[in-house]
Amino acid sequence: MDVELKEQIEENYEYVRQTIREVCGRCGRDPEDITIVAVTKTHPPELVETALGSGINHIGENKIQEAEDKAGTVKQNNGTFHFIGHLQTNKAKKAVEIFDMVQSIDSVKIARRLSDKCVEAGKVMDSLVQVNCSGEESKFGFPPDKLLEAVEEIKDLRGLNIQGLMTIGPFVDDENQIRDDFSRTRELYEQMRGRYPQLDIKHLSMGMTNDYAIAIEEGSNMVRLGTVLFGPRNVNK
Question: What is the pLDDT of residues 132-181, one digit of tens each?
């Protein structure tokens, strides 16, 4: 294990945890309620092993092919593996094989395909439904006004355990707009919890390196962090 890398990751992880403690202190929340998913895309399996040996428990990936190379490392180190990218229907079987949670259910079609593959494998997949509150065309996810309609269609699929919502904040510098989108997502999350008490709704995944403090202030209890933990990613991968 690269000792210098481990020390850097531990330092970065403690910085993130301290930031979360400060944010939670301001808004009266318990920092222990915030789950940190470390996003390791473009980084090698060796970094994943180091991260899991530095106090991090959750690893996130957004591409199936890259995740395949890291799945064994995550499992061997008792980590929880999250898929956070757009899932193509022809990759659903592989996702079922290697992930513990899929955070990005962005269509009824993929929900059904994923559920079918889970049933075939004798597995129930913890899942989040992705909502696109910003309306940006570059993002996947259900429009806010279609979300509950979609949940109604997928909530009883045998292979899925729907546990909440995921969103990606708008790629803007306007903090008010970011906050508004996160606030809207939190409202939808609360509506889901109220409408479907039979579901295990407990995760609101929103916030990345540039906006996780705002996301926590607006109710997030799961953040997906890459750059702040591991430095700039390899954009050539």
Answer: 988 777 789 999 999 999 999 999 999 999 999 999 999 888 999 999 99
Query: Do 9 and 20 contact (CB within 8 A), yes or no?
Result: no
Q: Give per-residue burial for 74-85: e unless 16+ CB within 10 Å, then b.
A: beebebbbbbbb
**pLDDT score at 224:** 98
Inter-residue contact 195 to 155 (CB < 8 Å):
no
Backbone angles phi and psi of 125, in degrees to 5: -95, 120
Cβ neighbors of 172 (< 8 A, separation 6 or more) are 178
Give the three-class secondary structure for 40: coil
Domains of the chain and any CATH numbers:
3-230 (3.20.20.10)
Token readout for 177 is 């707009």
Tell me the C-alpha distance between 134 and 185, whole Å. 10
